[in-house]
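[Discussion] Sanity-checking designs against the backbone

I'm trying to build intuition for which residues belong where. Below is a structure token string of 385 positions. I'd appreciate it if someone posts a full sequence so I can compare it with mine line by line.
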């Protein structure tokens, strides 16, 4: 009985971290060291887990993924000119998410409980977003303009942060509804509230990501041929609609900014192909390569492949490709096992959105990414329960 109580306490701490992912917005300093509440929760939770389980038990594959990633990050700090900022990024985007994944593999809670915790996070974010839209209160400039152009930000500093976190969780909720029979009402509410939040924030990338992820998970149903046919038809019709076509083909103002950003980033990488700009150093180096038509000051290239290459060098890009290849290969080997499908659906949403935005280098997103990696690694790789 004591062991069960300890397990329950550890699991509750882990699930609380997932519910409270946005607490990274609560920032402060201790002895001059910049911290945030999410870092503290993760650190304390990890120590708690180590004490109760007398160590951390992770799979060999997870250990290799984590150690190589941390070593790549250390090299990226060394080559960076912004070492203090790089250390902060290393702590929050590399080390802390890996600790969450290690806790998860040690505790091994049910997938349903993990998804429910993430679902409660989305319900809170969506509730605040709806309240903002109804009252107009708390929306920062320039997104607080009146009329149809208003974009809610919920508790975040900018609208796309809503879609970036909500998209993979909404996608996994939809996949759960399709492939599972339990807790359907809860995940239906999460999917609806999350979709509402995405719509109110006008995160076009999140919409595309959720649709793509939904199409992916439907391919593993008996209606796959119908789904593929409808998908091709919808895409063809979308290209005939000027407003949708401009978004898909990056012909709107946002798309033009990204095209210019990517071109400038590739110019940077031609000069620095091995190490990139270094961790947290892109905004310092990029002005040398920025195109004249690109006027925005951005922290990342807004493409997951370029993000990893610029921040962590060529080794970081290779690491990402290898890890994702293993992730989907392992999931597809057990494609009849519905839990793998749920995880792959969430990763598809992150990757699709990551084609046009920063879907990893953000506190909450990095944790979600490593949660998916950790879960995929411990789920039975069979076609049986």
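Best answer:
Here's mine. Compare freely.
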């Amino acid at each position: 009985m004591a062991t069960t109580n300890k397990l329950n306490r550890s699991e509750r701490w882990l699930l609380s971290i997932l519910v409270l992912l946005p607490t990274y917005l609560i920032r402060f300093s201790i002895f001059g060291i910049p911290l945030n509440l999410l870092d503290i929760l993760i650190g304390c939770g990890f120590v708690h887990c180590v004490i109760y389980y007398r160590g951390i038990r992770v799979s060999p594959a997870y250990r290799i993924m984590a150690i190589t990633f941390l070593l790549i990050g250390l090299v990226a700090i060394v080559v960076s000119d912004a070492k203090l900022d790089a250390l902060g990024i290393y702590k929050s985007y590399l080390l802390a998410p890996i600790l969450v994944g290690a806790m998860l593999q040690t505790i091994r809670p049910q997938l349903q409980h993990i998804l429910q915790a993430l679902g409660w996070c989305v319900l809170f974010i969506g509730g605040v977003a709806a309240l903002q839209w109804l009252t107009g209160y708390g929306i920062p400039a320039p997104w607080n303009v009146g009329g149809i152009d208003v974009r809610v930000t919920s508790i975040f500093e900018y609208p796309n942060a809503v879609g970036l976190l909500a998209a993979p969780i909404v996608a996994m909720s939809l996949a759960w509804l399709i492939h599972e029979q339990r807790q359907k009402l809860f995940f239906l509410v999460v999917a609806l509230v999350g979709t509402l939040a995405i719509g109110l924030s006008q995160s076009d990338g999140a919409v595309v990501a959720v649709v793509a992820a939904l199409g992916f998970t439907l391919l593993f149903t008996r209606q796959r041929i119908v789904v593929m046919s409808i998908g091709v038809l919808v895409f063809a019709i979308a290209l005939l609609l000027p407003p949708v076509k401009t978004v898909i083909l990056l012909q709107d103002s946002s798309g033009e900014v990204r095209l210019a950003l990517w071109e400038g980033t590739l110019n940077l990488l031609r000069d620095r192909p091995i190490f990139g700009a270094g961790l947290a150093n892109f905004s310092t180096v990029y002005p040398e390569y920025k195109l004249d038509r690109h006027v925005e000051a951005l922290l990342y290239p807004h493409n997951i492949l370029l993000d990893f290459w610029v921040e962590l060098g060529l080794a970081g890009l290779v690491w990402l490709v290898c890890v994702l290849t293993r992730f989907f290969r392992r999931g597809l080997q057990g494609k009849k096992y519905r839990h793998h499908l749920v995880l792959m659906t969430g990763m598809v949403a992150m990757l699709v959105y990551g084609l046009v935005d920063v879907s990893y280098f953000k506190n909450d997103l990095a944790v979600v990414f490593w949660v998916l990696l950790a879960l995929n690694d411990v789920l039975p790789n069979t076609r049986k329960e």
